[in-house]
Amino acid sequence: MLMTRYRLFAAFAPVLLLLTACGVNSIPTAEEQAKAKWADVQASFQRRANLIPNLVETTRAAAASEQEILQGVTEARANATRITVSPEQLTDPAAMQRFSEAQSRLSAAIIPLQRLQEAYPNLQSQQNFATLMQQLEGTENRINVAIRDYNEAVRAYNTEIRTFPSVIGARIIYGSQPMVPYQAVTPGAEVAPTVNFDRPAAGNNQ
């Protein structure tokens, strides 16, 4: 009986080694890592979306006449939260494109808020507003870091499934498809929106 088990082990050992060499463990590990990093990206965008309603309401109180800007931010935020990308869609360029476009529109909608400070300087003195702006700035930094980490995880995964011998397991065992890195739709959209409410010094025309 013991000899039979030994022979079975000896017969299957090369197969197990071959499977290991073909990425049977490293491919799903890299895939799950990329999916986890994408979850961080979505969490960062959601954090921004959660901050915006309070920011809009705080601004509305002092800038009641600037409804067009505030409405644009509100609508862009609503559109951005409606479009999501599931882990299964990370290989779908069209889904990633739709998500990126929605988030870029929201980033662009935030930028005009900087014009409000000149017309409504009392916004600067509102502690709630200042706190929200600090949180928003921090959130934009988190988004950039999360996107960077996700793209690095995607690069590692895509390299893994294209590199011998893992490419064998990727094609035969898993049917792996390359994941899509996150790319800003418009040049500069990956940069955090500049929202500057500091009034320029007197006589400074720069």
Shape by Cα distribution: elongated
Provide the CATH top-level class.
Answer: Mainly Alpha
Q: Unreliable runs, pLDDT <50, ≥5 residues?
A: 5-21, 199-206
Total discrete domains: 1
Estimate the mean pLDDT confidence: 81
For the biggest sheet, the summary is: none
Helix count equals 7
Description:
With 206 residues, this protein is an all-alpha fold. The chain has one domain (24-34, 41-174): de novo design (two linked rop proteins), CATH 1.20.1440.20. The chain has 7 helices and no strands. Helix 2 (26-62) runs antiparallel to helix 3. The longest helix has 37 residues, at 26-62. Residues 5-21 and 199-206 have low confidence and may be disordered.
Produce the secondary structure layout.
Elements (H helix, E strand, L loop, with lengths): L1 H20 L4 H37 L4 H16 L10 H18 L5 H4 L7 H36 L3 H9 L32
Helix pairs in contact: 2-3, 2-6, 3-4
What's this model, at a glance?
With about 210 residues, the protein is an all-alpha fold.
Index terms:
elongated, single chain, about 210 residues, mainly alpha, disordered C terminus, de novo design (two linked rop proteins)
